[in-house]
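Exercise 3.2. Students should predict the tertiary structure of the chain below and write it as structure tokens, then compare their answer with the key that follows.

Predict this chain's 3D structure.
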Amino acid sequence: MECSDAEYVALGGEGSSPKLEKTRKVSIIPLIFLIFYEVSGGPFGVEDTVRAAGPFLALIGFLVFPFIWSVPEALITAEMATMFPENGGYVVWVSSALGPYWGFQLGWMKWLSGVIDNALYPVLFLDYLKSAIPALGGGFPRIIAVLVLVLVLTYMNYRGLTIVGWAAILLGIFTLLPFMVMGIIAIPRIKPTRWLMVDLKNVKWGLYLNTLFWNLNYWDSISTLAGEVDNC
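Answer key:
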């Protein structure tokens, strides 16, 4: 792919930020893992889908829901981020279409949603890790572990997107590796007949649909980094 010589004029006509022009751009591999973490962050929460609706509906949901929601959202994000290649993403889109007031409202609501959502991930991560380190199951050690995770992630965000991108690669490998190992170990015990189990009378539709949406949403979040993505 060739680099474009066209200069994008940011919203308001000021042009690109000199600070962003000097910032190291994020390449394709870190970007992929950043998208991975923005959307799901790993196969966490899948068990809730199975518990709410059974194996069959859980499999159907993860196969069908992406085509109903995830793919259209990802395509819209790619198109709009290409049209507005600057940090801010959806805030810039709405501000351009409806004015700065509604852009601010959207940014505030997305920030509030992100604060609530991101608070779940350290807890989910420790819930999986406590099977190997029981001390992290509760009490003072768990509090310290949560604080350490928050401080480390905060520091990486402070250092900039480049280090966050490469850290996302390492964390992605670290997160997925145990599931890959467990998947290989489970191969001899696979019973496809269990995949068809479903009890429509006892399906918790609210938990089922909310968990699917939570696992497969937030593709638009990566648009807020568009100004720091390498176009070459």
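Discussion points: The chain is about 65% helix and 0% strand. Residues 46-83 form the longest helix (38 residues).
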